[in-house]
């Protein structure tokens, strides 16, 4: 990926650099050619800023890496952008223009992808508890794949498709027993959780739930079995989990072929590719993981004597996470004397910003760690131990648990948190009735509002009194 001259390194987007000494705001952070002072003046704070070129480059990098690796072993790949990471009409268009398809996980996400002009055939619909309305919308718009997540859902999709005289293309989501990811809550392929159907035998010792669902799909004339789907977790930094999951899925595919004569066309290996959140951290390299997974798929198919499937993957975070930065304004700064575990006391500087857990719930939800910098100016002051906190009525309202900030950080400073492009805006809430921040795209020296800031009028409009 091409980086701006003076790029500060991970976890900043590729266009990020500090303005020179002769700039209007010397030392300010510049994103997509736009300085943070101009961004704050035009769009206010807090604001989600997305580097469009960075997003596009990452989307391309994943598509090209997987296409190249799988072409080499002799099959094709589709890359679905996991829209739940961040979905706006413009973002869905960027994904499509870079040759990606779009995965959705609700009627709302589906509506945004359709509004962006993504053809139904290039959209997937996920969800462990889809409503009839969501399934109906997917059928109406010719969604290319409905990923079914339970035996009951096989019947529901079959009935709704039959009612319409349609044949629904479905994949069955399976769990392979592979554990991977940054946090237990985002590791989705172990057995004791709500997603998917196990490839291992069920409690009654009969067919594995995954096999039972595949057989059930084959038995329904209003369903077409497209393939098998596995998503093993999120923020995965080691490609071995994907290989292990691929093996389990391909074995199930071969077993199904042996029993029924049907060799499903497609295997989806999900998303979860990890990114750098802190300076010095390394992201998963798409080329390396693509090569390893392609090699594993080819080897296992050869061992099993089955033809290669078409493969699909679903990166979300790895495409949009590093492209996004949250821009805040510093308010209250408070030194707090803290007693450590060893009994010694030290000072922690609590730096409050004008947002918090409503625009980034991940630190509170998963203990996620982030990196922050004072970005409106350069400071010659030494660094001090700081904690960036929000303005909500919770002591757990922490944005950055621990970071070194210049000792002169003060009210009015602009502060940016890096790598917030994924699961920031998409998980945002109105807690304390804060209005959700805008999503602003930057590119080639210009900024563009993609989603406007909510207003108090928006909040009042929903309250019917
Ligand atoms: C969340 C999710 C993804 C995307 O995960 P990332 O960690 O953002 O890459 C892909 N597929 C499914 C089924 C998901 O639930």
TrEMBL record:
Pfam families: Orn_Arg_deC_N. InterPro entries: Ala_racemase/Decarboxylase_C, DAP_deCOOHase_LysA, De-COase2_CS, De-COase2_N, De-COase2_pyr-phos_BS, Orn/DAP/Arg_de-COase, PLP-binding_barrel. Substrate binds at residues 317, 362, 366, 394, 423. The modification N6-(pyridoxal phosphate)lysine is found at residue 84. Its EC number is 4.1.1.20. The active site is at 393 (proton donor). GO terms for biological process: lysine biosynthetic process via diaminopimelate. The keyword rRNA processing does not apply. Residues 56-320 form the Orn/DAP/Arg decarboxylase 2 N-terminal domain. Specifically catalyzes the decarboxylation of meso-diaminopimelate (meso-DAP) to L-lysine. This is Diaminopimelate decarboxylase. It comes from Xylanimonas oleitrophica.
